[in-house]
Structure formats: structure tokens, C-alpha cells
Amino acid sequence: xxxxxxNTRMLTLxxxxxxxxxxxxxxxxxxxxxxxxxxxxxxxxxEEDPAVKRLQLMDQQLELQQKNLETQQKAAAxxxxxxxxxxxxxxxxxxxxxxxx
Length: 101
Fold this sequence. Notes:
By secondary structure, the chain is mainly α. It has two helices and no strands. The chain has helices spanning 2-39, 50-94. The two termini are 24 Å apart. The relative contact order is 0.15.
């Protein structure tokens, strides 16, 4: 029963981690698009142009979201590793034959 519960938790964590990776990738693509838009405004006054400021603000917000998701992803990876160790220990304990008993 314990092995089944641990395995289910690991599958859930793997799905969660994959969803986080997908979200990070989407944000990265959006930030890249913003970089392209910003470079297209090369001729404008970077200090005063409201379009540049708007793009910079959007990039900052996306960067914060990306860092938050990366932190969640690291936590999920750590928990997944922990679950794998627990599963390995349970398998060793449950399926070891004690010939001395």
C-alpha cells in the first residue's frame, strides 16, 4: 500500500513539475518576443519612450513570474527526489528476504 501511495505521489509531482516547465517555457518565449519588440524600437528615445517603458515593465513582471515558477520547480524536483529515496528504501525493506530469522 505504501509503495502504491508513494508512486502515485511521484506521478502527481512529475505532472506538476512538467506543467511548471511548460509555463516557464511560455514565459521565456514571451520575454523573447518582448526583446524583439524592444530592439525594433532602436530609433526611439529609450529614456522617454512610453512603449519602451511598457515593454520593460512587462519583461520585469514576466521575470518575477518566471523566477517564482523556477523556485516551485526546484521544490517539486527536491520532493520528487525525496519520494524516490523513500520508495527505494521501502522496496529494499519490503522485498528483502531475511534468511537469519
